[in-house]
Amino acid sequence: MIGIKEFLKKPKIKAIIGIILILGAIASGINAFNSKDNQENLVENNTKKHVNTIVLNDEKNNKTEIKAIGLTKANAKIDVVSMGKGTARGVYFEIGDKIKANKSLVSLSDNLTIANLISAQTNYANMQNNLNTSKQISADNIRQAEIAVKSAEQQIKSGKIALKTTEDNLRDYQALNQKNIKDTKDNAVISFDGYLNIIFNALDNINDILPINNETQIPHIEYLLGAQDMSSVGYAKTLYITMKNAYENLETIPRSSDSILNDMAQVINNLKQLKELTNATITVLDNTISSSNFSDIELNAQKSRFSGLRAEVVNSQSMAERELQILQNLDLLDTQQITALENARMSATSNLANYEINYLSAKSALESAGQTGEQRIISAKTALDNARSQLNLTQIQASDLQIKTPISGQITNKYIEVGTEVNIGMKIAEISQTDILTIEADLLEEDIKIIDREQKVIINNNLKGIINRIYPTADANSKKVKVEIIFDNSKNDLIAGSFVDVLISKIKEDNLENTKIFIPLRALTITQNESFVFVVNSAGEEQIVKKIIVKTGILDGTEVEIIDGLQFSDEVVVDGNKNIGDGEKIIIK
Questions:
Q1: Closest-CA residue to 558 (of 4, 19, 89)
Q2: Against a cut of 0.85, is the pTM above it?
């Protein structure tokens, strides 16, 4: 379908309009030469010109509903066939039963198949146990041998390291002792500054949460902070101020290796206070609520951040305590240190020799365990493969004795009874899916133009369906177009294969405003400046016409859509409109 303006722009249409205008002019010239009597007769006849009209809400010209006969069809229909052979021992369905997928319909009996299955299962289980046992024994033996080898290797590495360490310690102890003391203290001074930096960063992070010194908080958290327990905020603020003062005092202490022992003790005390402050801040966050401006995600992110901060503070405290202990023991060296180092060197030398002997023995044991285990497993796998093949075959044969439905639906045909001898490929039942029905109806081509896909329809006066598909072409013989309607038949309102009455409304949602207005193209007059029609306007006993300017839409065959200017109940002139003017009297044929 195309717009009327685009239609008029086509060269052929322009030529036709030109010819019509020329013929009109010629006709007017011929009329001018008629006799005076004829002119008087024309004047008399033109006082009331004959026209044909249509009323826009006339059912004949503007359908509001379409009636048709539809055929109901099941959504799916299949035949269940037997894949096995035997005697029907149990039949668990009747025509009309509703069933679910994978439900057992028939059980067949075949003694030889069952006996073969039991034998194959027993054999397979035995072979599987044999393989598992073989693998377990081999793995255990190899694992123990590997552990022994790795242990011997580790012992050699440890023995070498221990020997070198004892030799180095003995040789360098006295020379490096004083240097080590100085380096330890110098490193402690560096660590001291690191701990101060950790305290500073922690205070800075806490200050982002707590409203202290009128500094900027995290956006939108001010009125939510600690809302469930405001006392937690006050307690955290108090700890913060105390911690802040302690940090500022500690920061002013001059850094010196001579005083590092005392300084480290103070920084440990500050870290303990910081841990308490961090815990208090976490408690505040636990009592904080979220809002549209400060979401649960943002709140949980803050909780996670301070959990990480607390872990960092605890770790720093532990490290500081270890450093303090080292510093305290620097001056407590035992006078027997050199003797102990010498004894350690001699012991390490003896141990290393023993470790090397153990390693050679372990390597030999590992090689032997691997060869033995491999042969045992290969033999067990061969036996299991043979048992598996036999089991698979008997399982397939046994499973075919249980005939199950492949889909959910309703039994619509039954082909078997208890005692029936069943062969492979024999029909057992027919299953139809009737919860959803498809209703097919054939409509005239002009009716198709006034309906849409997904439009609701009425079935048998009180049931509702939905148009699911409108076929793109008409049937070659009937010239009708097939429409497919989907119906929810979960309550079994309809029977598959039956005929039903279908009523389709042109007016969607029962709203006339949604219905398009189409008029015959011959009723429309088009000029270079405007498009118009004539509508009938009664004046007493006289009937006169009124010129109505209209706005056109799409062109649909011999009809054109009117977007603006007309409404339902208007009576439009369709024939004779070329010989009348605005306000003229007419006679409707």
A1: 4
A2: no
